[in-house]
Specification:
Elements lengths: L4 H11 L3 H4 L9 E2 L1 E8 L10 E3 L2 E4 L18 E8 L2 E7 L5 H11 L8 E4 L4 H4 L2 H6 L8 E4 L7 E4 L13 H6 L3 E4 L5 E2 L3 E3 L15 E4 L18 E3 L8 E5 L3 E6 L6 H12 L4 E7 L8 H14 L3 E5 L4 H10 L12 E5 L2
Parallel strand pairs: 1-15, 6-7, 7-8, 8-10, 16-17, 17-18
Antiparallel strand pairs: 2-5, 2-19, 3-4, 4-19, 5-6, 9-13, 11-12, 12-15, 13-14, 15-16
Helix pairs in contact: 1-8, 8-9
Length: about 350
Amino acid sequence: MELSRRSLLALAGASLIPASRLYAANALAVPSVDLLHLTVLVDSTTSVFGASITRPDIRVVPPPITADYHTAFAGQWGYSLLAKSSAAGAARTTLIDFGYTPAALLNNMALLGIEPGTIDAMVLSHGHYDHFGGLDGFLASGKVRRGTPLFVGGEEAFCARIRGTDPDGASFGAIDRPAIRQAGIDLIVSGDPRIVAGQGFTTGQIPFVSPERPRVPTGMLLGQNCDRHLLDPAKRDKSFVVDDAEHELGTAFNVAGRGLVVIGSCSHRGIINTVRRAQAVSGIDKVHAIVGGFHLVPPQTRDQAMETLALMQAINPDYVIPGHCTGETFVSAAMAAMPQKVIRSVVGSSYIFGSA
């Protein structure tokens, strides 16, 4: 049954409560940036006929035309985003997630002229293969600077996973921790909010403060590839649990004069909950843009997609850039409801906020 108009309005009204009143956040002195340049490195939508957009508060640059027409940007089920920010003349580059395969990530980076050695910090949103699968090959390039920080939200990210929620399901892989050590990466595992490269920040663990309760279609094999002693006490003695994505992180930037740009790479904790957490951590209620995967594909329902849309309209971001696991149900409804705000995520495209 679809949500009634009254239910949608009630949900929207709940979302108008200032984030600071919803729960106490870990206080963080969040910096502001003058310019934020987001480039989609991995997603499922590709195009060689992208359109550019120029407005006072955003510029969209389509994928560049490759010099050799035999080459093309690779699209796949997964996500990776490059964030170039600048503040007071200092520029920083943050890589958020790594897509499904090294081949796609490295191909698309090469076509965009992005060198691994230029990355100042990395964030892994959560421990699903379609977000960390490209990591090993990226590190194996030998071009990533030793000592580059990699932010991960908790030990659970490293646990081996299976597809589906049956303990006998097929493997969904696990992060190669030795490869991270061998590359000399500074691994920072924390559920607390953290400043990233001096200009962005992670949300830390994301509480449920909206009606969103997404179902996560994977299971964790506890103790396999992860240290039981570092897991939540309620889980550490079990051999299998259905994922609740408790370790998942969002990433955000405060664009001066515009507000927050919040990136929910897959939003298994709910994209509205992710935004609310970023607001509470930063103390900033204004949301300029919401970007990434909103996890509204099955097993989520149409009602859940409409519920999220109502809550998002109440937050009233200037822009919404849905991609990856958002799903066409939400995207088509959002484009009808907010036609000037919704912009498609396309591999190789850049979305530029702020002023140079």
